């Protein structure tokens, strides 16, 4: 049984896949298997998976009809034979030290701790004086900007736990690349329910290289509003504030990112048949509760006023500004600061 099973969903991956796999073959430790899940790719990615797998027994090519990245990741969980599970996207890479850093973390982490690490867009990253930091769950909001709490490729998953809990799987109805956060929420709820005094064991050195130059990435496409977009942030908000005791000041970035993501979904919803979902979002009591929380604790976001007003047109304009000319977004941020200052004077 290999120590690590690494799941790599593959779809139209020819330009990047070879480099992705080579980053595994360059690891300082070789105790792993890599599952190349060809998700019915229409190009030659499936043949490339077979070619790469033929060159190293640690690589396995698995083919399935096109069903989406969530399905490919679930297939990887079913096929995995290792003790620990990792996810790697086809256009990204591991650094040479990634697996050895995780091995060192496993030797020092306590039962019930989630081993996690930051990602980087730099080709090379330097070692840090202190390799690890133990962080209580109440600092989850503080860690949000590191990507260690909501991306599947910045954490180590226990395959024994996943096998014991078949309900912890990716939602295969999600086809727009936002399947990470619901899966991570559910995994953490189960992990920390079994270990209520659990914590995060952070590798202080980036262990995942994130490729920013792939124009075909799902994150670069329009993402029309879907029911799970609000649900995943509501679940995160509920768990952080009620289950893990994250203080309000550490929720600022989480809630700002929530509004930014929802704003992009509103911006992406351009067809007439998509407008009822937009109107329903703006009236949803879960969104109103998060906005009330932001008001009560004076948490800033340039999108706050637009959502509070319930104006789809203003939300779209702000989202467009965030993607290009940021002048409108900057004015909204200044207005937000003035409103919070006025609230403090009233208080």
General description of the model:
With 347 residues, this protein is an alpha/beta fold. Helices cover 46% and strands 13% of the residues. The chain has 14 helices and 10 strands. The strands form 3 sheets. The chain has a 5-stranded mixed beta sheet, sandwiched between helices. Strands 5-9-7 form a 3-stranded mixed beta sheet. Strands 6-10 form a two-stranded parallel ribbon. Helix 9 packs across helix 13 and helix 13 packs across helix 14. The longest helix is centred in the C-terminal third of the chain and has 20 residues. It is globular.
| Largest β sheet strand count, sense and barrel closure | 5 strands, mixed
Strand order of the largest sheet: 3-2-1-4-8
Structural class: alpha/beta
Instruction: Give the mean pLDDT.
Output: 93
Q: What is the percent of helical residues? A: 40-55%
| Separation, N- and C-terminal Cα atoms | 61 Å
Number of helices: 14
Rounded to an integer, what's the Rg over CA atoms? Answer: 21 Å
Order of helices and strands: EHEHEHEHEEEHEHHEEHHHHHHH
Task: Name the overall outline.
Answer: globular
SS strand fraction? 5-15%
Uncertain spans: none
The tally of strands reads 10
How is the topology of this model organized?
Layout: E1 4-10, H1 14-25, E2 32-39, H2 45-54, E3 59-64, H3 69-79, E4 84-87, H4 98-108, E5 114-116, E6 119-120, E7 132-136, H5 140-143, E8 157-158, H6 159-164, H7 180-194, E9 199-203, E10 208-209, H8 227-243, H9 252-268, H10 275-283, H11 285-296, H12 304-309, H13 312-322, H14 327-346
Parallel strand pairs: 1-2, 1-4, 2-3, 5-9, 6-10
Antiparallel strand pairs: 4-8, 7-9
């Amino acid at each position: 049984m290999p120590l690590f099973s690494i799941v790599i969903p593959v779809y139209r991956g020819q330009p990047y896949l070879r480099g992705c796999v080579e980053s595994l073959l360059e690891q300082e430790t070789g105790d792993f298997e890599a599952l190349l899940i060809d998700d019915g790719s229409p190009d030659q990615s499936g043949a490339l998976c077979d070619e790469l797998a033929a060159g190293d027994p640690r690589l396995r090519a698995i083919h399935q009809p096109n069903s989406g990245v969530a399905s490919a990741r679930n297939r990887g969980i079913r096929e995995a034979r290792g003790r620990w599970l990792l996810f790697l996207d086809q256009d990204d890479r591991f650094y040479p030290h990634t697996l050895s850093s995780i091995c060192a973390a496993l030797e020092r982490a306590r039962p019930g701790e989630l081993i996690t690490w930051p990602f980087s867009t730099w080709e090379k990253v330097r070692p840090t004086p202190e390799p690890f930091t133990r962080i209580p769950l109440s600092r989850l909001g503080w860690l949000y900007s590191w990507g260690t709490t909501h991306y599947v490729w910045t954490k180590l998953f226990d395959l024994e736990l996943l096998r014991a809990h078949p309900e912890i799987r990716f939602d295969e109805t999600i086809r727009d690349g936002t399947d990470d956060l619901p899966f991570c929420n559910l995994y953490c709820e189960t992990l920390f329910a079994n270990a209520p005094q659990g914590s995060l064991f952070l590798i202080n050195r980036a262990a995942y290289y994130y490729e920013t130059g792939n124009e075909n990435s799902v994150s670069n496409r329009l993402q029309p509003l879907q029911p799970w977009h609000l649900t995943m942030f509501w679940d995160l908000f509920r768990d952080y504030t009620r289950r893990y005791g994250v203080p309000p000041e550490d929720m600022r970035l989480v809630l700002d990112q929530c509004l930014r993501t929802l704003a992009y979904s509103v911006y992406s919803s351009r067809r007439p048949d998509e407008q009822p979902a937009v109107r329903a979002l703006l009236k949803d009591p879960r969104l109103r509760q998060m906005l009330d929380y932001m008001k009560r604790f004076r948490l800033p976001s340039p999108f706050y006023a637009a959502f509070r007003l319930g104006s789809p047109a203003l939300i779209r304009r702000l989202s467009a500004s965030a993607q290009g000319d940021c002048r409108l977004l900057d004015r909204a941020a200044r207005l937000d600061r003035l409103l919070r200052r006025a609230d403090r004077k009233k208080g």
